[in-house]
Amino acid sequence: MIRLSIPVRQALARLTLPVLIAVAFGLMLLGKADALLAERARMALADALSPIYSVLAEPVAHGRAAVAELETIISIYRDNAQLRAENERLLHWRDVALALDAENTRLKANLHWIPGPRASYVTARVVADAGGVYARAVLLSLGPNHGIVKGKVALDDRGLVGRVTEVGARSARVLLITDLNSRIPVILEHSRAHAMLVGTNGARPRLMYWPQGVRPEEGEPVVTSAEANLFPAGLPVGTVRYGAGHIAEVAPAARLDRLEMVRVFDYGTGGVTAPEAARQNLRIDGPR
Amino acid sequence: MSDRRPGIRPRASLVRRLDISARLAVPVASTALLLLLLSAPLGLPGQAELQVAVALCCVFFWSLFRPGSMPPPTVFLLGLLGDLLGYAPPGVGVLSLLIVQGVALRWRRQLVRQGFGVVWLAFLGIAFGAAALAWIVTSLLEFRLLPPAAAMFQAVLTAGLYPPLAVLLTHAHQTVAEPDHA
Questions:
Q1: A41: buried, middle or exposed (CB in 10 Å: 19+, 13-18, 0-12)?
Q2: pTM of the shown model
């Protein structure tokens, strides 16, 4: 080490801090001028530290799991009380439902009610979101001899998905209720008013043409109507939501943005068939 | 340190010298270790701010009570480490740590004699000053006004972290970091 006199050493010691501060400013300018350099230095450091972090990861995960477990244990008591209350409420509703069911059968028996045809269905996997002519449509993969024809109703586990619009040998296309071309007759559950569900290509189709004097309520369930004999009555479609601009929209019950499996029902409803079906019939009948 | 005291002593053995230098290195090493630990994916809330706060607290404490173990070049390196581990533009952490050290060294004579409350009050001012400085410099570097709420949070966190950390550091100061105990 170089021997320096005490005053020189003191002067140097006093100079260190200002010089380092100046260097810090230089560092800032360097980082601003060459952002890539800082990024590279950061990555090099992270690379060097990553083995340490991976060693640390296990105890950290253990600690976090322990904390999570503790939280669960603490909330068990509250959850239990909540579940008991909920169970009680549900049992009450079960009794109500059973009573109503019994009453319903009795009334039907008294009225000589003709039951509707039992619906048969096939379940198919959604293979593509490909629109084709339509913006909101999905393609179903079907085996040969699937027996699906146009106009059949597609539902997922929660509600109405749409209608089959095109049928091929091994696939079918379902037009979703959110498509611009989709028009579905619906009933508002509370007011029993008829309305039209009009797709907009957005996530929520609009409600239109409800009768005067009726106002769709926020959160009101919307079900299909048997009008025009397209759908059976009472399939769940969604709930009323008022969107931007106070427009009555319907939040679909079906998870249309992540469809995986779809059931295609045959309710025995004919309804209006699309013009393409007529053309096919012509072609088949033509040569005869 | 103890070598500079007057008096005649036999030359220290190698082990003892090693022990002394290890104790002298405790402040910087522990600060660097804390910085590295806090950059690990622990999933703590506000971990990035915590890292900056820990660096400020440690540099302030050791500059005040053991400046010999926290020389400016190591503060520079600690700041650089913090900057590279964090997400702030490089140099901002270095600058604020160096300025904190400068202020601590300047106030040292007055503060060392005072009780904990006065020191903490002084650190309160330093924490807010450092957060404001970092906010101004980062805003200048980014050419836009950053939301001041983050800087405020940083300042409050730093000031609040000092008392618990100071208890630990004082304990370390009297035990593992004390060269006379070697």
A1: middle
A2: 0.58
